[in-house]
Each structure stands twice: as C-alpha cells, then as structure tokens.
Amino acid sequence: MSDVKKVVLAYSGGLDTSVIVRWLQDTYQCEVVTFTADLGQGEEVEPARSKAQALGVKEIYIEDLREEFVRDFVFPMFRANTIYEGEYLLGTSIARPLIAKRLIEIANETGADAISHGATGKGNDQVRFELGAYALKPGVKVIAPWREWDLTSRETLMKYCEERNIPVDFSNKKKKSPYSMDANLLHISYEGGILEDPWAEAEEDMWRWSINPEAAPDQPTYLELTYEKGDIVAIDGERMSPATVLETLNKIGGANGIGRLDIVENRFVGMKSRGCYETPGGTIMLKAHRAIESLTLDREAAHLKDELMPRYAKVIYNGFWWSEERKMLQEMIDYSQRHVNGDVRLKLYKGSVSVVGRRSPDSLFDESIATFEDDAGSYDQKDAEGFIKLNALRMRIAASKGRKF
Amino acid sequence: MSDVKKVVLAYSGGLDTSVIVRWLQDTYQCEVVTFTADLGQGEEVEPARSKAQALGVKEIYIEDLREEFVRDFVFPMFRANTIYEGEYLLGTSIARPLIAKRLIEIANETGADAISHGATGKGNDQVRFELGAYALKPGVKVIAPWREWDLTSRETLMKYCEERNIPVDFSNKKKKSPYSMDANLLHISYEGGILEDPWAEAEEDMWRWSINPEAAPDQPTYLELTYEKGDIVAIDGERMSPATVLETLNKIGGANGIGRLDIVENRFVGMKSRGCYETPGGTIMLKAHRAIESLTLDREAAHLKDELMPRYAKVIYNGFWWSEERKMLQEMIDYSQRHVNGDVRLKLYKGSVSVVGRRSPDSLFDESIATFEDDAGSYDQKDAEGFIKLNALRMRIAASKGRKF
Amino acid sequence: MSDVKKVVLAYSGGLDTSVIVRWLQDTYQCEVVTFTADLGQGEEVEPARSKAQALGVKEIYIEDLREEFVRDFVFPMFRANTIYEGEYLLGTSIARPLIAKRLIEIANETGADAISHGATGKGNDQVRFELGAYALKPGVKVIAPWREWDLTSRETLMKYCEERNIPVDFSNKKKKSPYSMDANLLHISYEGGILEDPWAEAEEDMWRWSINPEAAPDQPTYLELTYEKGDIVAIDGERMSPATVLETLNKIGGANGIGRLDIVENRFVGMKSRGCYETPGGTIMLKAHRAIESLTLDREAAHLKDELMPRYAKVIYNGFWWSEERKMLQEMIDYSQRHVNGDVRLKLYKGSVSVVGRRSPDSLFDESIATFEDDAGSYDQKDAEGFIKLNALRMRIAASKGRKF
Amino acid sequence: MSDVKKVVLAYSGGLDTSVIVRWLQDTYQCEVVTFTADLGQGEEVEPARSKAQALGVKEIYIEDLREEFVRDFVFPMFRANTIYEGEYLLGTSIARPLIAKRLIEIANETGADAISHGATGKGNDQVRFELGAYALKPGVKVIAPWREWDLTSRETLMKYCEERNIPVDFSNKKKKSPYSMDANLLHISYEGGILEDPWAEAEEDMWRWSINPEAAPDQPTYLELTYEKGDIVAIDGERMSPATVLETLNKIGGANGIGRLDIVENRFVGMKSRGCYETPGGTIMLKAHRAIESLTLDREAAHLKDELMPRYAKVIYNGFWWSEERKMLQEMIDYSQRHVNGDVRLKLYKGSVSVVGRRSPDSLFDESIATFEDDAGSYDQKDAEGFIKLNALRMRIAASKGRKF
C-alpha cells in the first residue's frame, strides 16, 4: 500500500471525509490534497479550509463550480428531457462527473497519483466517481476507504476520531439527521432511516428545500421562461446566467411546494433502494422544456429523442458521463436543439407545474393548417384517404390471407 | 357510388352524425345501421335510438362497452406506463380500436359492406378507425363523409339540415361549446377555439371533469390501490371491476383537481395541434403503476419497458392497435406483469398525486442489502471494486491510447 | 391543370421518360426542363441531349454527379454499416435524395414551379423523389405521370408514341430485358419478370455486373483498404477519390463474383416485392468497415450504432434522407467515426469476402491485456469476481425471493 | 475456505479440468462431482468417466445434451436472426446457459453447495457460467480456480500435475494446438497464438470443421429447408430432430467451405479480443431464416425484431440468458414466429450461401399487387399521392418556416 505518494480527496469538511483525511495519511503514509466544491449544496465551503489545515493538509482546493455545473452538465442533460425510471431527475448523478473531472485535473496539477472519495461500497456514487476518474486518467489509483477500512459502525468511527484527535462537531445539524443526504444546485436527496421501509411515508420535517404544498401560497404564481437552443436564458424577461436560472427556479419552485419525489429506484450495483428527492427548479425545467420543444421540434426528431432518452438517462445514472456513448448521444441531442427557441408560460400552484402557453419565432405549429375552421386549401383532406389506405395495406393483405388476432 | 348496400355508422346521436345518416342514405342510396356505444363519455346513449329511428334507421345498435373498454384496452395500455410525447395519456386513441372492432363485427352480423364515421380529414381519428377496420375486414369499404362532401361550413350544414328536416337541437349545451370535444371513461379532450393559439391560456370554464385545483379541498385525500398482474383490482381494499375502478378514480381525482393537461402534440397526419385533456383517473393510475413496478419489476425488465414505451405509445396513437407490432409488444409487456402485485398508497392534493408508500408480497426490495446499517454480510462492498474496474476497462484502454474528450 | 408553367423532369433519355416529356408538354401546356445525371449507371448520358432537343426541350441539364453521390451519400451511409431488413444495401434508395436535390436546385435556377419523374405509383422511388422535393421546396408541384395518365399498358404507350412521333429505339438492349432495372455506382437492381414468383431462381443471364462465382478466378484476390474517419481513401496503398474507390471495388468485386443478392423486401407503400441486386463494391465496403470499426470503436459506441442502424436504414429506405431525424442520426454516426482510421486486408474468392487482417494507429485492441499468456499485471483476474457478483445481484435477489423461470 | 462440502465441476476430461478436480479436493477438502456434457463438440465424452474415477470422483455425470441444446437454446436464438456486433453467431455464448443449468440441477440433486468451472478470469465464459448459476440458485458458492490459484504458467501447472500424479496426455492432439478452442454443435472457436495479432492472417491448418473454400466442390450444392414456426423441421423433405438438423447442416456446410469467420470482438469484461469461428450450419440457418421471414412476417414485426436483435444478442453474449429481459424478448420473438412456415431453397458454393427461392402457405407476398403488369385494380396508384403528401407534411411546414439543412 506504500505505492501512493499523493492523493486528491473529494472533501466536504464533514466528519466522514475528515476521518478519511487522517486515515489516508495513516494508512498510505501519503500526502492528502483536499478538494471542496460549491455546487450549490447550500452550505459554506470556506470552513473546509481551516478543517483541512487542522488535519495537516497543505494543498487545499476550494472552488465555486456552480456555473460550470449548470452550464456544462445540468443544462445539456435537460436538453434530453432526461428522467431515470420514469421519475428521477438525476440530481446526484449529474454532479459526480464534474467532481471526478476536477479531482483528476487537480491530481495532474499537483502531481498526485491517486484520488479518493467518501462514497460507500453499496451506492452508485462510487461508480460515478471512479468511472470518471479512470476515463480521464487511466492509470490513476483510486482509494475508496469505505470499501477498505473496518470503521463500519458509528462506534468504531468515533473511537478512531478520539484516538486521533479529529474534531467531531456534535452540534452539526446535518449530522443529526437520520437520513443520508446529498445536495447540489439541482436537488437534495434523502435515503436511509425510516425510508428503508418503502411502505412508510416520509416525515414532513425531512423535506428541506420545498414548502409543504399544503402550506404553499393560495394564489398561483405565473412564470415566463425564455429558451435559446434548448437552454433557459431568461426568467420573466430578465436574462441571467445558468446557475442563476436554476437558483431562481429553485426558490420559486420551492416556495410553491414543487419538486418533491418519493421513489424506489434500481441502483447500478444491483439492488433497489428508496429515495426521496426535492428538485424544484429541475421539475419546472423539465415541464417547460417539453413545452418549448412541442412547438419547435420536428415530430420524428422528438420521437427519436424520446426513444433514446431512457438509455441516455441510464448512461448518466450508471456513471458513464465521460464515455463515448454519452458523447455520441449528446451530439445528436445538441444538434436537435438549434431551433428550440421561444417562451413558455407556466403556472405554479401548491406542488404542481402547468404549462399554460408557449410561443416561438421558430414555431412549427401552423395555425392555418391545424384550424377547425376553413383552411383555405392549406390542407387537402382527400390526401388522408391514400395515406390511410397505404398505411393499411400490409394489414389488409395479412387479413385477406387469413391472419387473425 | 352505388356499390354500397349497407353501411354501419359510428353514431353519436348528435347533429353531425345525424346529418351523416341522411347524407349516406342520399348519396349512396344505401341502408344505414347505427352503432352507438357507451364508453363512459358521460352522456346518455339511449336517446340515440329515437333519433336514429326518426332518420329511418332500422338496425340500431346501442351498447354499453365500458367494461370491455377498460379491461381490454385501457388496462393493457397502462401496463406499459404509456405516454405519448412525454405528456399525453392517449385517452382518445385508445377508444378508437374498440369502436372499429364493433363496427366491423356489426358489419359482419348485418351483412353490411361498408362502415362510416364522423371524423374529419385532418385528424388522427379517421386513421385509427380506418386502420382498425381494414385490419379486421380487409375488403370493407370505408366512407368518410368529411373527406367527401361539400358541407364544409356551418352554414352549408344547416342548410342541408333544413332542406331535409333533420332536427337540429339548438338547446344542446355541448354544441354551444366553442371547443371540439371527445370523451370516454379515460378522458375528455378539447381542441379548437382559442386553443388554436398555443400561447393563449385555456379558460377556466372549459374544463368539465375536474375541479380547479385552487377550489379543491384544503385537506389531502389518501388512497390505497391494490394491483394484481399490473392491473388495479381494488381501491381502499374494496374489489371492483375495471370500469368501476376507473370511474372511482375519475371521481376522486376530479374532486382533487387532478389530471389537467395542456399540450401541443404531433399528429400522425403531419401537423402539430394543441389540445387540452382531463384524465383524472389515468393520471393516478400512471403514477401508481410505476410505483408498484418499482418494487416488483427487475431492473432490466423495467428499462426494456421504458425504452420501448415511446414506440408502443406511437403505435397506439397512430392507430395501429390491431397490428402485429402492437401485439408483439403487448406479449412482452403482459409477460412482464406476472409479479406486479401489491399495494400503492397515494396522496392527492390540489392537482397533484404523490406516492407515499408501496408494498408487495412480490417485492424485490431487499432491506437487508439496501440498508445503511450493518447488513450482516448480505453484500460484500469489496465486490464493487472489481465491478467498477471492469466497467471502466474499455474507457481506461481508450484513454491510455490517447483518446480525449 | 394549367397552373404549371415549367417543370423539371428527371430524364433518362429512355423511352418512358421521353414519352413523359411529350405528355407533360401536351397535358400541362408547360415548358419541360430535362435533367440527366451520371450516377455511374454505366450508360452514356450525353445522348440524352439530342433526344431532349428532338422533343423540343430548351433547357437541358446533363451532369456527372458520381463524386458527389459517393462522397455525400454513399460514404455517409456506409459509416453506419447500413442494411435494410438484414440484407439490402440500399443501392437505389441512396441515389434518390441526390436526384431530388438537383431537381429542386434546377427548378430554382430555371424558375420552374414543378418537378416530375418516371417512377410508378407502386414503388418506393416516387416516395423518395417527392419527399425530397417537398422537404427542399415545400411549395413545389409534383407531377407523377404514372399515377395520372392512362398509358398503363405497353400498347397504349406505343400508340401514344406513334401518334406523336416519339422515336422508339427497338434495338435498345435494355428495353428487351424482361426485368425492371435500376443502376448507379452502388448497384444494379432487377425486379419483375419471373422474379415475381419468389420461388423461382433468377436466371444466370439476368446478372450484369458480376461474374458467376463458378466462373470467377480459381485463385483468391487479396486487397488492402485504407480508412480515414470511416471512409476508404486508398486501395492497396493508392489514394483515390470516393467515386474511384467505388468503381475500383465494383470492378474487383464483380470479377470475383461478389455482391449478388436475391431477396423479398417490404416496401414503404405496404407490399412485399422480390428484387435481385448486384452490389460488388458495397458488399466489400460493408465487410471492411465493420472490420476497421472492430478495432477502433469503443464497445458501447459500436453497440449504440448497431441498435440504431435498422432505424437509420429504414429512414433512408423510406425516403426521409432530407429529414431532421436522418440528420440527427448522421451527426451521431459521423461523430463516432473520428478515430476510425487504419487498414483492412481482405480476401475475395468466388463470391465471398473475408477479412484476414486489420490494423490501426487508433486501435483499441490491447494485446497486453487480451493475451492468453502472462499479462504482467495489466489485468487483475480477481476483478472479475466482483464484476460478476454485482451483475448477478438483481437476479440473485429475485431468485432468493422465489422468482422462477 | 473450509465451508464448501461438495462442488459440481464442469469437467471436460482434459488436463486443465483434471487439475482442477485435484486442486478443489486439496484446497477445499471437499467432494467433487464431475459433469461432462456432449454438446456436439465432436469428442467422446465417455472417457471422462475413467479419468474422473482415477481422480477419486464418486459422483460422475456424463450426458448427451445435444437435442436439448439445439431445441431449447440454439433454435430460439436463431428465431431472432441473432448476430453479435454484426458478425458473430454466438456459438460459445449459447452453450453456457445450458451447462450452468445442469450444474445447478446436479448440485441440487447431489446436495452440493458449490459449482466450479475451468474458465479464466479474462473471458466471457466465467460470466456466463456464474450469472446462470446465481440466477438459478442464488445462494450457490462459485469456485473459479483460474481466478484463485497461482498455477498461472504451463510450468507451474505441470509441476502440480507431477507432484500429484495427475496423468497428462501428451499425445492429445487438441493440447498441441497453439489455439484456445471451444466447440459444440453450433461452432468451433479459436483464440490465442498468432491470432493475438489482429493483422496476422489465420493459418489454413487452424480450421477444423470446414474445408477451405478453394478446395470445396466445383459444383454448387442445392438444399431445401422446411420451417415450422421459425424452426427447421426438415431438410430436402426429410423430417429430422433439431440436433440432426444442425449436424446435417454442419456437414453439408463444412463440405462447401461455409461458415468461417475472423473477427475482433468486444468482451463483456471490457477488452477487445480476436477470434476465429467456424459455424457452417448456423451460417446457413441465419440466411435461410431471414428468407422465410421475408415472405411470412409483417413488415413492422420484422423491423421491430431487427431493432431489438442487437440488444437480444448482447444479452446472450454477456451471459444473461437466465434473466427477465431475455425472457421478455423471447416471448415477443416466439410470438412473432407463429406463421413463419414454409420452404427455403439455398445454393451453397465454395464458402457462400445464397437464397434462390422461398415459398410458404403463409406467404404475405401478394403477386397480384406487386406485379409490374396490370393488377386489375388490386392497388390504386392514386393512393400514393395522399400517402406521400401527408408523410411530407411536417417537412413541408418546416421548410416553409425557413428551416434549412
């Protein structure tokens, strides 16, 4: 194990990753570089500096990646109307490739030969971190303490901290939560605790980002989103950056009780798990993006996207962001968005988002053809007869040859 | 045109199809058989008898098809979590194949050589009726008056009625609606009128089946659905027939403002159109079915279904219910449902449906493995290392050969 | 019918399209512009000039499109390993979009408001021509004489020619063929005649482009093809243009009896038809392209391409080359080819093509890992255990819960 | 390691698995049950009995599984026209699930708690054996000696044999081959040796099952295959069992030099490997099955099968035969075959198979419609106009709104 000289750790500043710093130093006798990113999780990242320093870390990276996160990861994913297993908006999945990328870039900058993270051996996140790392730096050594060490209970962990004078902040509110949580600008997730019984309803005080729909305003909120090439560039006419878009939608959505989700999902490692998610802004974006596409995308383009979406979602969920297949799909998706411009008007009310209008300079909606009124010859209804007859021909032949259902 | 002897007409009893009866008699000098079905549209069908008689029709079929509709069409479709273009629950599409089937069966019983319907030449319904008819009776003659006649404006139609003494019921409430509507047990749809402007918000008084979410009860409603082989067999513990299930869910859903939808969709005939839909029960069923599957379906089975769903939806939307490809997909889907048993607990509140619990005797959720607590060896975290390494291998090789993103 | 002023006709110079020139002049009282393209069909195109002049045509376009055809249509299609229904290399289908494009460009140049072609109302080619034309010039008028006129038998056609002094060349060899044929640089096709009985074997003297395998050389021919970004750029080390590549492969392939095919296919218009094809160069290209991809494409990229290929083939077969969905697929396919470089060595022998070697500077084949000998630690066999265990986990859980096959 | 009491070993009787018997006895101190199957590999299986006895094995299973292999595994797979990566007929992959099934059944019969096999840690076969085993008996212990032991070179292996008096048969012809081989009724495969260089041509004396095409008969061989529900039931009019069908086709195909293949494939474990295969009968069956389907399958049924085939092939290649997704796909495929009846006439000649005729009582080929001659009104060419116009509508609208390519 002595072949590691320097390791870059995805460091939150919390107890677990602080223990990992010390454990890496002890176990591998190596230098630890910490990397802490602000992805919009809603917690200060700067305090991680002093904690890392206290642990003897010399190279400390603390970065605000919110814009890059939304611009290069969240937005591209939403261009595909991506949902995993019909429900999940991939809030955790989409943050991992960015962290993996920065871990590797920092490893290259600092001459580190390994990376490390605090994800357990049962989850998807270990896979996402490590697939990204291997794809970007094939010779990197990955250290996953939770798969290696024997600190598998709270007691052994505490004992380890005490023996090594690792400060444990018992007042930390998050630590007292019975749930395992993860947050970034796209969502916050909850697992564990009573959620391990799929029949048990989540407790109201678990939810942190959205108000209970029952306590949301009695009046609906209207919202207008402006799209350019499939991405939101303005809210209610005000242009803003990608991260600001998402922050704003989170705030408005959360205030209207939007984006709560309670599901059982299938992990890549083979088990089912139950999770609860709050994705206020993402829930709004999905609905609105479909609406602007409904007006501006060709039918078969839309259907092709729809048929490939579950696969694209799976690629991301399973951690293959930095893969050739994801890039190929992305090329197709991005190409399809070049006319996805226009405005969507939404109504938010106590937990639900409704589209109430959409318009576009690139609209393919042709009122003169679609109308129930006189269309002045734009469409010849007699064309339909031949259309139907030839579409029916194979079935007519089959039936006339005696084929039955 | 004299080669038609007898034609079976899908007859609603309304003005348009009444005109068609007379027009068929006049134009083809043929006998007309009327067929009126109760599919749960919420209007009496029996009055169609006297109207048909008044028009000189001798063979009159009036049938309650609600159970067959839900059991053999709606339920099979919901086993696939079917949605067209990410939003539409196919309420109109799924009723057409049953009507086509009965039209043909009645044609066979009465010795008719033709069928007719009141759908226009711009829509999907003509396609659905006629593809079904041709698939089931390849030599049948199809008469689509809207594509043939010159009664293309309200005035010419009225004049035609006056000249022929066709009674026009000006007091009919539905006729005064500015919208083109279609209803059955699964949904009611609205098209035309101000909806032809996709930016215009639908007027509140358009909606007929659901209460405005803002006027819905301030307290959530909880509901428990029981599934057997993918179909709902009981609500809150009370077993009921398929049609009763859907009626019940429509009532509860509508009372909670659930199932309104406003979209622009792509028709099979090539144009975009804007439609509003109310599908209270269907909206609940979709959410609940995904929940019971999340617990009982194998991951790859679920993903296979998800990837094929858009195609299955398109097959139905385009009118190919009575096709070999629909049957093949159905075989696969139905097979997948043999363990989809159990209960789903839902919360309905002012327009939204949330899953709050799910349980099953056939659950594949393994708490002992999924737990964040000690799993007593059910899962060896070390397995994850090899799993990740081999999943990464192709990417590592590519990267080591210099491939870049 | 008098609203057409000028029409551009896809003119072969043969009897049928010569009749069409006159028929268009007579029926529409319009000017006819002829367009004759050399797509490598193996017949002189220049003679079409005097024939058109004799018919009074003033604007005559005769063009050599062979390079454009192979570079912009054939090669892009082969990047996808495209085969329709498991057998057909789309030789006819891929030429139509180019003809449609030139028809429309010429219409724009000459101020024509219509285009015309000599394809019948039963086949795929009318669809391909017209979909292309409509996609590129939505207001164009399309005249398809075979669907309009009453010259439906050989006799009426001859009579029409006699009455109008249209010169009929009875010595024309092609006319005496009992088959309907189409040829371009990619293939020659045969339909009709005894082929209308799918049980009847094609006669040996039908085949024109390839020698009977039984008469082919007794010694195999070896060949080396060089690829850059998925396209062949050199044969046996000699760089050549796209059309020259295909011409060369046709010659070598034909001499070795390669590329004959006898199939029943499903037309877009709904019927099955039987066709025989000779595609010597294309057959070699398909085999070789798969070989160079096998070495240079990532596994999942290759599988994604394979899963989408049938759809891409169908898009082209059905005539949707100039559609958004084809372009989207092409974006993905082309992107995947950026490392598809290297050489393939082939053996041709009496009708079959075998790959005997492939090499690439961008090879992803890693001998040090793949070897059966000692791999010096490149691959840790123990990783396989975890890989298998987690891949098996969902099935183990299902089986432990009593699920059976 | 002492927790294994009895292990069932897939035993070939060869050196490697003989060593494994002894190694299992030594290492696990357990009883070994041997299982040797005749899958048509072309070697006597009975000699395995005395070899096993000599190693002290008490429970010895020797079985002829050829009929089950072809009937329940090979034939179902060929119903889907299954090919992996465009080339490979899955000869090895399809045998593994049957062996896994028998290993588990024998474990259940003999009260064994473990199974073992001789596949290495680099290949696909370990995955296929083990996924099958885990799916059928989730609690089984799997022992894969090649991943555990240190006998990784020929020398250490030989030394181990000498020390333990394991008889090594130096006269064994197969052992002297420089290639790693696997054979069953569907194919024989070669890997390793000079094949590890993908540019090196396979030596002629490597091939064992087929004659060199250059040495094959100078006269073609004609063959007639009869299908029932997608499976071959007779050759040249003579009904025979599934295994006899395949044996017969192997003999005829091999004599005509048919079925050689040389590819680079992507293994599930992440690496590329080069393999050569001889699949004489399978190559014929694939071609013939497509031909009978071309006459009897509905177009969209055929296309649906084609689009899903690569996924089905991948499922089998990766070892997921005993999975829910394979069963779902199989349900769909098998359903589609209920009318796949009839005869296919083939011509075999020096390495190639050509279809020269096909006929069926369930043919969907309609000569009266397909004909180039007068069709007496079976098909109205005018229908094509409306068909094309509505298929073009979305593209016309897009173009008229200014969309460009």
From TrEMBL, chains A, B, C, D:
GO terms for cellular component: cytoplasm. It is found in: Cytoplasm. Residues 6-167 form the Arginosuccinate synthase-like N-terminal domain. CDD domains: ASS (cd01999). It is an enzyme of class 6 (ligase). The keyword Amino-acid biosynthesis applies. The keyword Ligase applies. Its EC number is 6.3.4.5. Pathway: Amino-acid biosynthesis; L-arginine biosynthesis; L-arginine from L-ornithine and carbamoyl phosphate: step 2/3. ATP binds at residues 10-18, 37, 118. Residues 179-397 form the Arginosuccinate synthase C-terminal domain. One of its GO terms (biological process) is L-arginine biosynthetic process. It catalyses: L-citrulline + L-aspartate + ATP = 2-(N(omega)-L-arginino)succinate + AMP + diphosphate + H(+). L-citrulline binds at residues 88, 93, 124, 128, 180, 189, 265, 277. L-aspartate binds at residues 120, 124-125. Its main location: cytoplasm. One of its GO terms (molecular function) is ATP binding. Keywords: Amino-acid biosynthesis, Arginine biosynthesis, ATP-binding, Cytoplasm, Ligase, Nucleotide-binding. Belongs to the argininosuccinate synthase family. Type 1 subfamily. Homotetramer. This is Argininosuccinate synthase. The lineage of its organism: Bacteria, Pseudomonadati, Pseudomonadota, Gammaproteobacteria, Oceanospirillales.
